[in-house]
Design goal:
3 helices; elongated
């Protein structure tokens, strides 16, 4: 019975702290996205003319985000019945937005007026016990900034 109580306390603590930190991260992301709206990001095809630029540089933003124990537990339960694993969808959304912001902030500090052909790459990171532990993802955003 003690183990069940400890487990329930840890799950509640994981849910509370994880939800609070995720909420704060989203607030920070939204604030920073508003600050960087003046620099557009555009993708061009192979046959489209590129905008005139006096200088260009490649910028990269990367982030590693891990899930909390509550998300791991609820995702495990979702695996039993199938369906969307929404707890991991927010993890990927936060990672993509954070990596893009980091790239964009570096380009703005350089003096970029726009960022071209932005790409996102992601990879899963796990410890020695693959599939039995903390879920972590690395997301990299890269693009060519022009000024």
């Amino acid at each position: 019975m003690e183990n069940l109580i400890v487990f329930a306390i840890l799950m509640a603590l994981g849910y509370g702290v994880g939800s609070y930190r995720e909420k704060k991260h989203y607030e920070d992301i939204r604030r920073r996205e508003k600050q960087t709206l003046h620099v557009p990001m555009m993708n061009f095809g192979a046959k489209q003319p590129l905008p005139q630029a006096q200088d260009s540089a490649l910028f990269v933003g990367s982030v590693v985000i891990t899930s909390d124990y509550f998300k791991n537990f609820s995702a495990s339960l979702r695996n039993l019945v199938g369906g969307r694993v929404t707890v991991y969808e927010t993890l990927i959304d936060r990672g993509r937005r954070e990596a893009t912001l980091r790239m964009k902030e570096q380009a703005i500090a350089w003096g970029a007026t726009e960022i071209l052909n932005v790409r996102l790459e992601n990879s899963s990171i796990s410890g020695q016990n693959r599939g039995k532990g903390q879920v972590a993802i690395e997301i990299i955003a890269y693009g060519t900034a022009v000024r």
